[in-house]
Design goal:
By secondary structure, the protein is an alpha+beta fold. It is built from 5 helices and 10 strands, in the order βααββββαβββαββα.
């Protein structure tokens, strides 16, 4: 296999780790099984590969290799090795300049030196054995070497999944040198990952940031503000439930979401 030419390579590695959680309530064991089957089909390896292909198009990458796999009893994975080597053209950024916030502005441009880059996605459907709660989790990693930031794919990812909770971790690692030999540990301006999220999407969530700017590490956690019960019932609707059961289900859903968002089990029973 012919080796890729890395002359003039930007050695910075930018990694966007994107975790989404979709919560559901299924009243019976049969409905819980059907929910898992539905999620497993809706986000099978073939569809996940299509999502990764769209990500690579948004960031201007060429797909070198693709691997995908469905699992038994549930879950799927897809992985892509990506690369590109051409001029940035209208989308070119200089070291120290901000990355364009709107991906569509640069969608037709080709981005420089994305060798040694990859995109992966893994899914994890699961359900509570007793209380009717079922949770779907998807983990996506977009890691690029070069000038471009994977943050350009962020809004597309948020729109590709039904996300009740979102955890976004963005890291810049390594360094690159300018022509005078001075090291640069980041090549674009960033204050928060949420700066790159469309305002209409962000308005739906309560958010917190944990940013270690001196380490070039940025974490944003988002939880949906409004819980419309009918959006969470699988195989039934609100009209099928008594008021007391509606309140009980709502409490269970809110507890599940809060436990995932804060990363700890609730003391409540």
């Amino acid at each position: 296999m012919k080796k890729l030419q890395l002359e003039g390579f930007n050695n910075l590695t930018k990694t966007l780790s994107f975790n989404i959680y979709d919560i559901c309530y299924a009243r019976t064991p049969q409905q819980r099984r059907e929910y898992i089957e539905y999620i497993d089909e809706a986000y099978n390896a073939h569809r996940l590969t299509g999502i990764l292909e769209q990500i690579s198009e948004i960031i201007g990458a060429t797909i070198l290799n693709t691997a995908r796999q469905d699992y038994h009893p549930q879950g799927a994975s897809a992985t892509m090795l990506i690369a590109e080597s051409s001029d940035l053209g209208a989308c070119e950024t200089r070291i120290g300049e901000p990355v364009p916030e709107e991906p569509a502005m640069c969608q037709d441009a080709v981005v420089s030196h994305l060798d040694k880059s990859h995109i992966t996605v893994h899914t994890y459907p699961e359900s509570h054995p007793e209380n009717g709660i079922a949770t779907f989790r998807a983990d996506i990693d977009v890691s690029t070497c070069g000038r471009i930031s994977p943050l350009r794919a962020l809004n597309f990812l948020l729109q590709s999944f039904d996300s009740d909770i979102v955890v976004i971790d963005y890291r810049v690692r390594g360094f690159t040198r300018d022509i005078e030999g001075r090291k640069h540990f980041i090549d674009h301006k960033i204050n928060s990952v949420r700066d790159f999220i469309d305002s209409t999407i962000e308005a739906r969530y309560e958010s917190i940031d944990i940013n270690l700017t001196h380490e070039h590490t940025y974490l944003s956690k988002m939880i949906l503000k409004e819980l419309t019960l009918n959006n969470y019932l699988f195989g039934s609707g609100e009209e099928d439930l008594e008021e007391e059961e509606r309140r009980k289900i709502r409490r269970r859903l809110q507890r599940e979401m809060e436990e995932i968002f804060f990363g700890r089990n609730s003391a409540c029973t």
